[in-house]
Amino acid sequence: MHIGPYELKNNLVLAPMAGVTDRPFRQLCKQLGAGLAVSEMVSSNSLLWGSAKTLRRANHAGEVEPKSVQIAGAEPQMMAEAAQHNVDNGAQIIDINMGCPAKKVCNVMAGSALLQHEDLVKRILDAVVGAVDAPVTLKIRTGWDTSHRNGVRIAQLAEQAGIRALAVHGRTRACGYSGDAEYDTIRAIKQSVSIPVIANGDVRTPEKAREVLEHTGADAVMVGRAAQGRPWIFREIEHFLATGRHLPEPSVEEIRDIMLGHLHNLYDFYGEHTGVRVARKHISWYSKGQPGGAVFRDAVNRLDTLDEQLAVTRAFFDRLANGEELAA
Ligand SMILES: Cc1cc2nc3c(=O)[nH]c(=O)nc-3n(C[C@H](O)[C@H](O)[C@H](O)COP(=O)(O)O)c2cc1C
Predict the structure, then answer these.
(1) Which of 158, 170, 197, 288 has a CA between 20 and 30 Å from the CA of residue 224?
(2) Distance (Å, rounded) from C-alpha 193 to C-alpha 41?
(3) Which residue CA neighbors atom 14 of ligand 1 most closely?
(4) Each residue of 104-146: pLDDT tens digit?
């Protein structure tokens, strides 16, 4: 699959997730098989660009290419400037967020709230595409609510505006994250445009990835929540799509080593204080479903230093690897 001049190594994409898809997590998912990983969104409000959070979000040093950065906002000129600013800071692909239902984003009329204003959508797309040489991609939901599924019209607007790939989450803005994603609208969107379409929503297993690709005819699938604590899901899907067979589950030792490497990268990226806090949610995800996981999480979440967090986490996974019974 191509996005502008960039050829992706496969058709598996890590979804942008604010607070999750920071540089360490994107790197890890790319190492473990993702062909593309979209960064957390960066506000189009230039007053925020100097903040530590935004500077960190715009840090792509050493990241596997192509580097895709998501921007969010509702004002065409500000979005154009945000795109330019991010390209100047190393972004190779600009992704526009019209898919996020978060109150913080929708209240200021951005994210998926924009879908009900097709004229404004067009002005934003024209402004951003016109502002940068880098390819621009768009992420949408299937529509505003279940009686206003205007995804096909938005997709056509996007193609006309020069958008190079379109990711579609199979829910409407009103659906939030409830119910099951639906893929009929994604199929209709795919049939109505010739730019690459990336299907998203509830892809949790290799079988589901194949089913969604077949049902929608999409060019790629995008995985979000299922990659939390399971970044190796990308190589599992890649292998299954290529061979029809499953890779063996990673051993506890391999999970431990992947996780410890991830924690070190988080400490390097954020520094000890923030790194330890960001690491907590990842440690929780990695330990989900493991025997004794609840007791372990309760203990590890109280620790404030890198040394303690590493030691307790390593000890838990060592005991699991040695087959020691742990209290549930
Ligand atoms: C914690 C979290 C943060 C998210 N942040 C963003 C975001 O910043 N931009 C965006 O376009 N979508 C965001 N999303 C939506 C995801 O990209 C994706 O569309 C959604 O989770 C459905 O895919 P999944 O079922 O594979 O998780 C977020 C989702 C989650 C769970």
Answers:
(1) 158
(2) 25
(3) 17
(4) 555 555 666 788 889 999 999 999 999 999 999 999 999 888 8
What spacing in Å lies between the alpha carbon of 17 and ligand 1's midpoint? 5
Closest by CA position to 93, among listed 184, 203, 6? 6
Quote the strand ranges of the chain, DSSP E: 2-3, 6-7, 12-14, 36-43, 68-72, 93-98, 136-143, 165-172, 197-200, 220-223
Active site (catalytic) residues: 100
Helix axes 118-131, 151-161, angle to 10 degrees: 30
Instruction: Give the Cβ contact number of residue 104 at 10 Å.
Output: 12
- Which pTM does this prediction carry? 0.94
Q: Is the peptide bond before 16 cis (omega within 30 degrees of 0)?
A: no
Distance of CA 193 to the CA centre of its chain: 23
Q: Which residue has the tokens 């959070």?
A: 53
Q: 134 and 91 in contact (C-beta within 8 Å)?
A: yes
In the numeric block, which tokens belong to residue 236? 């599992």
Closest atom of ligand 1 to CA, residue 200: 23
> CA-CA distance, 159 to 193, in Å (whole number)?
7
pLDDT (tens digit per residue) in 288-307: 999 999 999 999 999 999 99
List the structure tokens of 311: 């030691």
